[in-house]
């Protein structure tokens, strides 16, 4: 069984690492905060001082960190994975970062005898804890096949999407839709509320037709009860929509709807609401219209 | 049993009228085209020469016409419903028109001893034929209750939304979401295609998560097979999004996402594609990016 390293034990990384231990893998961990490292060590993991040390002790290293510069530092920094000069090491980056940054890092790792897979996830902390994440993977297909058991320990639906960056581009498409749908839904809910309709009744009618979506089914009822805690933080949605903008520019696609949705998330974060759920972008429209979306029934 | 008039036997109106005959109602019809009138008369309906004549012979008159000016002409024109001076007549407008125009017409009809219900539908020709439309109703609640059997003959989910215009405002909220979701989905599909991913695989992954929606489930597979025939015509979606703009302005709600989506439908109609399905707005993005969204698998 492969020896696995796990770098980045945040809200997502910690439960994912726990699922690997549960599946019987020997785990070496490294993270910026003390508490989750202690927690994993108590469960049987070993600690390593740097990403380089993690790489030296493992066959596969997983990274789960916030953004492109974080992955770059862990992979290419002074005490990074590449510095371990470990031939055949597989690096699985499960963070959501830029496909372009991914391809750059993957190229350098390849030149150093490593293989990189980009394997961002969807499903949030609930999926991370339950081991039911959706995982979309790009990179070398034989490396992907070699890691099948590892992915299976963390996710339910695992899809190989193509060459390096293909996993991140798929995640970018997902984030276009989630962020865009919340922005569109905000306009419907605020129009309903300001027109004096019961937004709860409007949601009930709309989910019965062509407007049906996860956002209306799962998140709109929470908005109506003003339960705006995350789920998935708006500040992270903003980061992801910035990635979409860079990616679309790089491949030559104009994304005006996403650009506008991104600016609304920008306004939300500027207003100090970046730690709320991404569906709470409705507050931007509420502020513009001077109305609050609340269920009457 | 109430005697019903039906004005506007188009793609939606004709099957709705047939369902009323099937339910046992005595029907008087009036429409601009000859063929559907003959078809309904062959099924037992009577023909009337003008909306005024329809009103003179009926207890309830249903209108199903394209836009606000059409309803205004039928209701308030020289040979319109009001001209029949029939006390107690109920006018059910099932067209999708402006809530503001609706309230204006309803007020005049009320002054003339009539009651008007706005009762736009969703579910398309399939719902019209099967009698499974969703119907969202605004106007006087006792008039609504008096028409329960009539609605039941044409629809499945019938919801009373509130005062005059409330049905049309609910429909406007629905159209914000359908048009907006197609616009957002277009950006995801075109980014996937131009990045060299298999859009069919991307759709498969996305429907498994928070991006799940009717558009991805039902329409994206048709786009991937280039089946762009309507369904619901893009030119009608554009009309509906223009109604949203007027309505939002009137009540004081800013709807930038919908405004942008509307301009993309405008571009689609200008390009001569207004008779395609509303989901085919993806062609606007395809043209901008120089790529066609097609399934590889």
Fraction in helix of chain A:
40-55%
Number of helices of chain A: 14
The major pleated sheet of chain A works out as:
9 strands, mixed
**What CATH first level of the largest domain in chain A would be assigned?**
Alpha Beta
Unreliable stretches of chain A (pLDDT < 50, length at least 5) are: none
CATH superfamily of the largest domain in chain A: NAD(P)-binding Rossmann-like Domain
Mean pLDDT of chain A: 97
Quaternary structure state of the chains depicted = homodimer
User: Could you give the distance between the termini of chain A?
Assistant: 55 Å
Domain tally of chain A = 2
CATH names the topology of the largest domain in chain A as Rossmann fold
Shape, principal axes of CA atoms of chain A: elongated
Structural class of chain A: alpha/beta
The run of helices and strands of chain A is EHEHEHEHEHEEHEHHEHHHHHH
Total number of β-strand segments of chain A? 9
How does this structure look, described?
- Two copies of one chain form a homodimer.
- The first copy, chain A, is α/β, with parallel strands linked by helices.
- Chain A has two domains: 3-163, NAD(P)-binding Rossmann-like Domain (Rossmann fold, 3-Layer(aba) Sandwich), CATH 3.40.50; 170-289, N-(1-d-carboxylethyl)-l-norvaline Dehydrogenase, domain 2, CATH 1.10.1040.
- Chain A is 53% helix and 14% strand.
- At the A-B interface, strand 9, helix 9, helix 10, helix 11 and helix 12 of A face strand 9, helix 9, helix 10, helix 11 and helix 12 of B.
């Amino acid at each position: 069984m492969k020896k696995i390293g796990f770098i980045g034990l945040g809200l997502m990384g910690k439960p994912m690492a726990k699922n690997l231990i549960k599946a019987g893998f020997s785990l070496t961990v490294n993270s910026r905060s003390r508490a989750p490292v202690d927690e994993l060590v108590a469960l049987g993991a070993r600690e390593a001082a740097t990403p380089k040390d993690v790489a030296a002790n493992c066959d596969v290293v997983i990274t789960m960190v916030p953004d492109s510069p974080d992955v770059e530092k862990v992979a290419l920094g002074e005490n990074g994975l590449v510095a371990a000069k470990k031939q055949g090491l597989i690096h699985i980056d499960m963070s959501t970062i830029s496909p372009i940054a991914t391809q750059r890092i993957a190229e350098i790792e390849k030149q150093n005898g490593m293989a990189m897979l980009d394997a961002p996830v969807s499903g949030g902390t609930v999926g991370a804890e339950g081991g039911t994440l959706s995982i979309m993977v790009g990179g070398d297909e034989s490396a992907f096949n070699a890691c099948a058991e590892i992915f299976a320990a963390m996710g339910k639906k695992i899809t190989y999407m193509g060459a390096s960056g293909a996993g991140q581009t798929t995640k970018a498409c997902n984030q276009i839709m989630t962020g865009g749908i919340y922005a569109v839904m905000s306009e419907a809910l605020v129009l309903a509320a300001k027109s004096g309709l019961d937004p709860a009744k409007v949601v009930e009618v709309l989910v019965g037709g062509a407007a049906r979506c996860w956002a209306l089914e799962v998140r709109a009822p929470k908005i109506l009860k003003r339960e705006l805690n995350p789920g998935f933080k708006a500040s992270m949605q903003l980061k992801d929509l910035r990635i979409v903008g860079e990616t679309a520019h790089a491949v030559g696609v104009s994304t005006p709807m996403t650009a506008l949705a991104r600016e609304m998330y920008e306004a939300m974060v500027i207003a100090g609401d970046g730690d709320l759920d991404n569906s709470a972008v409705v507050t931007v429209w509420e502020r513009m219209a001077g109305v609050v979306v609340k269920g009457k029934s």
